[in-house]
Recover the amino acids of this structure.
């Protein structure tokens, strides 16, 4: 089967090391994961994110429709503001996590994950009946890239006609980047400050606009980065990977996402009654972060055991080396009795047990040193 190509594929083909990522031909690295990770934490990097899902919802019932579909409350959004949310099935399992932006009273821009791109849009279409809403899938007609790092804002500002320094976190703005109409949003998936840039009216079959915008941002100083650094950066920030850390077998209370669930909002949401029952009964497991004390790198699927190493109590959902910290870290779900910070655990790495402990995971690093909250 031929792999799907993004708008930036021509650049990846020439400069990157391409892998099959969910059916897309994507770069896992260019110069190397460690160098690219460091560029984003200390300066500025750029990622191709055109494999992700993008759609527009517009019409008189758009706010009512999206509030029914999502756990968070869209009515709280001001003009050109965005918010993070999750979308649930009827049993309160997480279909996906998304970001929604309000462009007008009846017009919202919706961004979601690549692994659930077709599934999410089909879920929207399945439930839009009865609402006066028009849904448009823009994924193949709008390029997407992320410029991330402490120097990201000045880098993007260098190639825009408008001043983007005042765009607030989770805000969206119409700007001209390298001469082309774009959206920019003050968001990302690395824990750092930066923008996601969306090149309008740019079909994947005619990607020249996107390649020019990408080229201008690289020339302005953004280091091309691949999937390897994207994964290590988001893991250090404690950000969930859809389909792995969160999925339809996990509910938002287990995933420590209670803060995006507005039980009392008008109209409710799909999965509300099931989630209320779960809240009443109490969750038996919760997401935790693990920092390795002993030598070893935890990986997805590795068993997590209690401190004695005698009982399997969970498994790693995401794991790897944290380049900024110099040791291995992991996310996973454990019984609530093992969630207290400092609790010793063991992780089975191949045939041996490696020592770890429960640590702060949102983020794993000191956010006065790294990330968008860092001390200036």
């Amino acid at each position: 089967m031929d792999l799907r190509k993004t708008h930036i594929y021509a650049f990846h083909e020439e400069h990157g090391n391409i892998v099959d990522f969910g059916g897309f031909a994507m770069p896992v690295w260019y110069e190397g994961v460690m160098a690219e990770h460091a560029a984003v934490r200390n300066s500025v990097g750029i990622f191709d994110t055109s494999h992700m899902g993008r759609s527009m919802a517009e019409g008189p019932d758009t706010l009512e429709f999206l509030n029914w579909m999502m756990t968070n409350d869209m009515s709280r959004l001001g003009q050109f503001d965005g918010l993070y949310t999750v979308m649930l099935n009827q049993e309160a399992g997480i279909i996906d996590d998304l970001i929604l932006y309000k462009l007008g009273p009846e017009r919202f821009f919706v961004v979601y994950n690549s692994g659930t791109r077709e599934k999410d849009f089909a879920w929207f279409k399945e439930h839009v009946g009865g609402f006066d809403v028009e849904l448009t899938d823009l994924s193949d007609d709008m390029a997407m890239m992320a410029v991330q790092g402490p120097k990201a804002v000045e880098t993007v500002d260098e190639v825009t006609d408008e001043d983007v320094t005042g765009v607030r976190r989770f805000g969206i703005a119409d700007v001209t980047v390298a001469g082309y109409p774009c959206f920019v949003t003050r968001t990302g998936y690395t824990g750092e400050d930066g923008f996601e840039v969306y090149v309008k009216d740019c079909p994947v079959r005619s990607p020249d606009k996107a390649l020019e915008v990408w080229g201008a941002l690289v020339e302005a100083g953004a280091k091309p980065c691949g999937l390897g650094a994207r994964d290590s950066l988001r893991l250090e920030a404690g950000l969930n990977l859809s389909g792995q850390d969160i999925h339809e077998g996990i509910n938002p209370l287990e995933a420590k996402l209670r803060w995006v669930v507005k039980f009392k909002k008008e109209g409710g949401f799909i999965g509300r009654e099931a989630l209320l029952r779960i809240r009443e009964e109490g969750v038996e497991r919760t997401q935790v972060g693990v920092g390795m004390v002993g030598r070893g790198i935890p990986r997805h699927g590795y068993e997590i055991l209690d401190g004695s190493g005698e009982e399997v109590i969970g498994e790693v959902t995401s794991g790897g080396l944290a380049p900024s910290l110099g040791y291995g870290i992991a996310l996973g779900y454990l019984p609530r009795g093992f969630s207290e910070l400092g609790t010793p655990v063991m992780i089975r790495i191949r045939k041996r047990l490696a020592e770890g402990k429960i640590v702060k995971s949102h983020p794993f690093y000191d956010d006065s040193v790294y990330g968008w909250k860092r001390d200036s």
About this structure: The chain has three domains: 9-50+140-236, 54-137, 284-359.
